[in-house]
Amino acid sequence: NRTFALLVVVSAAMTVADVELTANSLKTVANSREANPLLGSNPSRARLYGVSVPIYAGEIALGHLLRRRFPERKSWMRPFVSLTGAHAVGVVSNLRAR
Q: Which of 30, 47, 58, 72 could disulfide-pair with 43, CB 3.0 to 4.6 Å?
């Protein structure tokens, strides 16, 4: 399904953008801290990816499961839209901190 593949790619791109901008902001912006309590106040790039990638994998698995179980509904898009939106907030926040 093209829509599924597109959502996977967009979500991956937003995840990577959020992680990279966060890692860069933590290094370059004075007194910057990570707000996500899962990551700690000053996480390494490895920790950022270590937490983000499993969540991303779960998002894909949940979206796929919902799509197979309820093919007539669009509810399978919710995990992608919500997590992509959350990462978009992170990207905007990191860009504003610069």
A: 47
